[in-house]
Amino acid sequence: MVPENKVRLYTSGRTSKRAGTALLMAMTMVVAVSLIGFGLITLGQADAVETGKSVSTFHAFWTAEAGLSACKAAVAKEKRPFEDMPLFGTAALVGATDRGSYSIDVIDDPAWMNAGNTIKKYVVSSTGTAPGGVLRRVRSKVTMRAFAGFFGGQGATVAGSSTLQGEVASNNDITVGSSAAVQGDAVPGPGYAVLGSPENVTGTTNSAPAVRVLEPIDPADIVDAQFDNDNASLDPTYYNAATKELVLSGGDSTTIPAGTYYLEGVDVTGSGALSVSGDVTIYLAGEMDIGGGGVINLSSDPDSFQLNVTGSTDVRLHGRADFHGHIYASGGSLIQIGGSSDFHGTVATGGSFELQGSGSIIMDLPTDLTWTTPLFTAWKSVSPSP
To answer: Is residue 324 scored above 60 in pLDDT?
Structure first.
């Protein structure tokens, strides 16, 4: 029989070896788990950093887009060229959102000559900055057009042996007669064309990229003219205060002095002649038919005579005297110019524009042009480089 103490000693040795092995395995597992945990923590931290960068990039991009939208809203509200607002150059417009800040840079399109042009093109860049200094930039090209020529929303016609010097435009087709000439661009509406003799156009005949919308005459201005005007200065021999009509015939002649007038009809026939002196603005709520000696602007300055047609009534000018002035009719008026005399100024109507006869119509730009809503095109991201 084995002594009891030896048995115990033998058993204790085996247990000790097993305990050592278990301890080694446990330590190995602890190290392995620690390494795995450390790796997971490191990977998690890296993912968190990358996620943070992605979020910041998104915020910077979103803020750049917000800046471009703010720029569009500002220009659409003003309807003036960028340099006139002024909103031009580096950091021309700055602002912030809850995700970062933006800065707008505006330059002339280097491929286009803006100076003295009734079509202006720009490049607008918006840089968004997110917290942490992450930058993203978006860019767009912008085109603006002035109603500073001869515009007929429902169509334009240059007929007879007449000559139009300047731009003629429409939201519809433009018709050019075989003996007529357009010394400038003819710009039909989107999807429309120059009909008749497009070879008689010295400039381009490309369709407009978008419909032009004439701003309506401010109703408050019309009401003011209706009830607070200078009609009392008109010669009662020819002006009927009850009907607000001005009528001349035979050898009649009268002069409208400087002021603002509200008329519901103007008719000049025979050899009658109507003159304007000084700065004259007429709000016309009825028909106008000027024949005879026509309308004589004593200053010969188109900016001194403004005719605003408040509704959709027609205006026909076919007198013998040259006309110097600007005609604006945001409704559906027909503006017809005929005879052998010349027209100096501009015409913008939501209706049709017609040039007939043998005279010339010469674009004479007004001091204060009316511009279309800007068209933003060719959007692209130019990130990440600012």
So the answer is: yes
Overall domain count for the chain? 2
User: Do 178 and 111 share a structural domain?
Assistant: no
Q: Among candidates 135, 165, 171, which has minimal Cα distance to 152?
A: 171
Q: Is residue 166 part of a domain?
A: yes
With vertex at residue 71, the alpha carbon angle to CA 378 and CA 374, rounded to the nearest 5 degrees, is 55
Q: What is the arithmetic mean of pLDDT over 249-274? A: 94
Alpha-carbon distance of 149 to 131, in angstroms, equals 49
Report how far apart, in Å, the C-alpha atoms of 95 and of each of 44, 65, 99 are.
Answer: 35, 12, 11
Residue 198: is it exposed, middle or buried by C-beta count within 10 angstroms (0-12/13-18/19+)? middle
Is the pTM higher than 0.70? The answer reads no
Q: Which amino acid is at 284?
A: L
Cα gap 357→308, rounded to integer Å = 24
Q: Are residues 201 and 331 in the same domain?
A: yes
Q: How many CA atoms lie within 13 A of 99 on its CB side?
A: 18
